[in-house]
Specification:
Layout lengths: L3 H15 L4 E6 L5 E3 L3 H8 L6 E5 L2 E5 L3 E6 L5 E6 L8 E7 L3 E6 L6 E6 L23 H9 L5 H6 L9 H11 L12 H20 L39 E6 L2 E6 L6
Parallel strand pairs: 2-9
Antiparallel strand pairs: 1-7, 3-4, 4-5, 5-9, 6-8, 7-8, 10-11
Length: about 280
């Protein structure tokens, strides 16, 4: 699933392509993807005539700011946006097509059909699911070591599943939790409420640094991820632990091990991240 760096990269690259573009027509071939409003015809009709004025990001969600409405989109596992000429035939698994002026189309392709779209009147999106219960943004001024410590002291869960909880801190998924915990020298099975404040400070710093570096490198292309212009990310080339089971730690030369923590595949250096 695309995490914060990938979604942020999609946001930036897509904004360059569609800012100011006017929607003339919408086709939806997989209605279950449209979660709100319930009537897909209403979804399509409301979009006609509106322009893409901006694209924001909230956690792992893309937030398209239109003239009257806000479109909230989650890519899930393999969702992908791209801008195409209207003369090009849609690829297989293209489920939503936004017809723009000048014979252009913004197309949403999703092999697994897990992606979702919600259309709200502008200003209402934060009052309703899926955005209403999201936690703090890692790049915001509100995300401080003190706040992170406060959030983690409230749960007895292991630190890995706690960091994956989008109601606490948004945007972190399997890749960047593994990487941030490694950089902070914290074992993924340590209880959240048992972290010392110094450990929390290290974790806070490693989260921001890891995500920031990933954004600058265009995200991680582990499987099918590409940005809004069809380009791969490069951060996967710098990973310390994720996906490197059996390889040697870049810091201490200990083999990276894979385990399951909170139901998720987890990668750890037993020397750098002592239990």
């Amino acid at each position: 699933m695309p995490e914060l760096p990938e979604v942020e990269t999609v946001r930036r690259t897509l904004l360059e392509l569609i800012k100011g573009e006017k929607i003339e027509k919408v086709i939806v071939t997989w209605p279950k993807m449209i979660k709100f409003p319930d009537d897909v015809e209403e979804f399509k009709l409301r979009l006609i005539g509106q322009r893409f004025n901006d694209i924001l990001r909230r956690g792992k969600f893309l937030v398209f700011i239109l003239d009257e409405d806000t479109l909230v989109s989650h890519l899930r596992m393999e969702g992908r946006y791209g801008l195409f000429s209207g003369e090009e035939s849609p690829e297989k698994h293209t489920h939503v097509r936004f017809f723009l002026e000048g014979n252009k189309e913004l197309r949403y392709r999703d092999v697994r059909k897990f992606g979702t779209m919600h259309l709200f009147p502008k200003g209402e999106e934060e009052r309703h699911l899926p955005l209403s219960q999201l936690g703090v943004e890692p790049f915001s001024k509100d995300f401080t070591p003190k706040l992170l410590n406060h959030l983690l002291k409230k749960t007895t869960r292991k630190i890995k599943p706690a960091l994956l909880d989008q109601t606490l801190v948004v945007g972190l998924g399997n890749i960047y939790v593994d990487e941030a915990l490694f950089r902070a020298r914290i074992h993924p099975e340590k209880r959240s409420d048992k972290l010392t404040f110094k450990e929390t400070e290290r974790l806070h710093e490693s989260i921001i640094k890891t995500l920031g570096e990933a954004v600058e490198m265009g995200g991680s292309s582990i499987k099918s991820y590409v940005n809004g212009q069809g380009e791969m990310g490069m951060f996967q080339q710098t990973l310390f632990v994720y996906g490197r089971q059996g390889e040697y730690c870049k810091v201490c030369n200990t083999p990276i091990v894979r385990s399951v923590v909170g139901g998720r595949g987890t990668h750890t250096c037993s020397s750098c991240q002592k239990r």
